[in-house]
Every structure is written in C-alpha cells, then in structure tokens.
Design a protein that fits this description.
This protein is α/β, with parallel strands linked by helices and about 180 residues long. About 45% of the residues lie in helices and about 15% in strands. It is built from 8 helices and 6 strands; from the N terminus they run αβαβαβαβαβαβαα. The chain has a 6-stranded parallel β-sheet with strand order 3-2-1-4-5-6, sandwiched between helices. Helix 2 runs parallel beside helix 3 and helix 2 crosses helix 7. The chain is globular and about 40 Å long.
Length: about 180
C-alpha cells in the first residue's frame, strides 16, 4: 500500500487519455474495490443527491468486485434513478486509473467508520492529492489528518447528506476546488 511518486510524476507529464463520456461533465471519482463490505452503494446515493443540484454530474467508479457484489451496485444505480450518470470501468491498469483521477473534478474516499478500520491508512487520498485533485472523504483519523494538514479537501461526517453538501460546494466553487 502506497504511491510510487516517481511513477505518478512521470504520468503527470504525459497527455491524459480522455474518456469522451466525461466531456462537458462534472466528474466525481472513486478508485478502489467495489466489494460489498466497502458499501460503495453509499456513493450512488450521494450522486443522486448531488444530481438534484448539479445537472451534468457523473460518477466514475474505477475498480471491480465479484459478480454478485457488482450486481448489487447495478441494482442500486437503477433504484436511485442515476443509470445515465454512473460509469463503471471495471478493473483497469493503474496508469489508466491515474488518467481518470486527472479528469476528475472531485475525488471521493468513503471509509466506513468502524473501529477496526480506524488504524488504517487509505492510499486513495494520497493518490488523489498527488494529482492535485480536491477530495471529499469522511472524518476517519488518517483521512482527516491528511486533508486538514494539506488543505486538499473536506473530511466530513459519514453521511450521504454531508458528502453531497461538500461535493456540491466544490462543484459550485471551481476556484476553491482548484485551490485545494
């Protein structure tokens, strides 16, 4: 677990392989596993709230999980009424994931608050920050420390409404998002 800064620095100098589906969109991004225990359906419900205020928003979910876990996410997308606003990439090479990070307006790091996970270090926040992207994460000890000290995003309570409010604030204030 970690980020190869040398490799990521060389990626930052190359041309981004752009996904045409993102053109003209406000892009929310999550990179990581989609396994059921991660509760990524949380982000789908956040998207539904955000899309009530931001018309051209999409959520890109980079990662994969066993078929049964992915089917749960597909059903959640249908139930939330955001099928046209979610892009599943499946498993892709890290360099391609970095291209998606570079195209994102806001990167997301929900880390379900359970005691056993309080001592872990979510790598995705470091990756997002290394590419200069603003982050919305929950107030997990490591995430809060990284975001508060870097000024690179918001650490909010782990609720759909709090995540949505922070995302909307960044999307409506691109100057602030760029600062982060």
């Amino acid at each position: 677990m970690g980020l190869d800064f040398e490799a990521s620095a060389s990626i930052q100098d190359r041309v981004v392989e752009k996904d045409p589906r993102l053109e003209g969109k406000k892009v929310l991004l999550y990179v990581g596993t989609m396994v059921r225990v991660r509760k990524i359906d949380f982000l789908i419900r956040v998207l539904a709230l955000v899309s009530k205020q931001i018309d051209n928003v999409v959520l890109v979910l980079v990662g994969d999980a066993p078929k049964a876990d992915m089917e749960l996410l597909y059903r959640e997308v249908e139930a939330a009424g955001v099928k046209d606003k979610v892009i599943f990439t499946g498993f892709i090479a890290m360099e391609k994931a970095w291209d998606y990070i570079r195209q994102a307006d806001v990167c997301l790091s929900p880390f379900r608050p359970i005691f056993v996970l309080n001592s872990t270090s979510p790598t995705k926040v470091i990756e997002y920050l290394a590419f200069g992207r603003p982050v919305v994460a929950n107030d997990h000890p490591e995430q809060s420390l990284m975001l508060n000290e870097s000024g690179g995003g918001y650490a909010v309570p782990y609720t759909e409404n709090d995540f949505a409010r922070a995302v909307v604030a960044l999307l409506k204030d691109p100057a602030r998002a760029a600062e982060m």
